[in-house]
Amino acid sequence: MLMTHTSEPILQGQRALVTGASSGIGATVAKMLAAAGAKVVVNYAGGADRAQAVVDHIQAAGGEALAIRANVHREDEVEAMFAQMFEAWDSIDILVNNAGLQKDAPLVEMSLADWQHVLDVNLTGQFLCSRAAAREFFHRGVVPELSRAAGKIICMSSVHDVIPWAGHANYAASKGGVSLLMKTMAQELAPHRIRVNAISPGAIKTPINSAAWMTPEAEAELLKLIPYRRIGDPEDIGRAVVWLASDASDYVTGATLYVDGGMTLYPGFEQGG
Ligand code: NAD
């Protein structure tokens, strides 16, 4: 368990919802929040067995978890998911907007459907879930025994909220949108003691980008873009999420934490410009 100096797990008694938590970063984030003492809703869109495997892992380690199916871009499904969570655990303290996908194509070949679907899941999904969580944080206010904040929202963005990405216009636009959605929510919600931050991962080994690291040749090419010369693991992101969810970061809101081994440091300029 991740402990504070008082030897209490740092998120003891808090209730978290992680979207897209049946694989990759989301699955690891769910497990690490649980290891830090939170009860965790493992949201998934499809593949109930994989979501259940995450729940089983958390329960085997002595934690509490609940798998709930919902497409984050469908308003009725999001509302039903939050209602189910509140019925089980009364409220929410931590939302991790993690669900996301890519549908890549050169601009001139990109279909409207693929443009729209990526914007729907990656951006509208974060809006719908943040709105549902913020309504509950407003309604409930600060519970001092749990946290100094009334609620915490963590938005999974990407280094492509600042690095343009040819062949991925829909994805880059969605993450650029997440960046300003996050800052605007942070500004609007701060007086209500709600903290909103983003994490922008670089290259993390997950199913979303397996083609970029599966073969030694692909991995060598990818490492050229990473000054720290290692590809990230989901745990690198999980540690950042736990910190942003905890009171250890209580004075941090509206921030984007780049967890990217330096990918946003213009590695092309390492040897001069
Ligand atoms: P992943 O494909 O394993 O995870 C994405 C999850 O989102 C999947 O579980 C998928 O089922 C879920 N999802 C897709 N559509 C959904 C919907 N409509 N409703 C609910 N869930 C849905 O990939 P990942 O790398 O773990 O990605 C997690 C997040 O991290 C994404 O937002 C991604 O953009 C971001 N990210 C990943 C990397 C990386 O290198 N892996 C880098 C930057 C950002």
Give short descriptive properties of this protein.
40% helix, binds nicotinamide-adenine-dinucleotide, 273 residues, seven-stranded parallel sheet, 7 helices
Q: What does the largest sheet look like?
A: 7 strands, parallel
What is the CATH top level name?
Alpha Beta
Given the structure, what is the number of helices?
A: 7
- Give the overall average pLDDT: 96
Tell me about this structure:
The protein is 40% helix and 14% strand. It has a single domain (15-259), classed as NAD(P)-binding Rossmann-like Domain (Rossmann fold, 3-Layer(aba) Sandwich). Strands 3-2-1-4-5-6-7 form a 7-stranded parallel beta sheet, sandwiched between helices. The chain has 273 residues and is of the alpha/beta class. The model has no long low-confidence stretch (mean pLDDT 96). The radius of gyration is 18 Å and the shape is globular. Nicotinamide-adenine-dinucleotide is lined by residues 19-20, 22-26, 43, 45, 71-73, 98-101, 121, 156, 158, 201, 203-204, 206-209.
Question: Any chance you could write out the topology, listing elements then pairs?
Answer:
Layout: E1 15-18, H1 24-35, E2 39-44, H2 48-60, E3 65-69, H3 75-89, E4 94-97, H4 112-140, E5 151-156, H5 169-189, E6 194-201, H6 216-223, H7 234-245, E7 256-259
Parallel strand pairs: 1-2, 1-4, 2-3, 4-5, 5-6, 6-7
Helix pairs in contact: 1-2, 1-7, 3-4, 4-5
Bound molecules: nicotinamide-adenine-dinucleotide.
Nicotinamide-adenine-dinucleotide is lined by residues 19-20, 22-26, 43, 45, 71-73, 98-101, 121, 156, 158, 201, 203-204, 206-209.
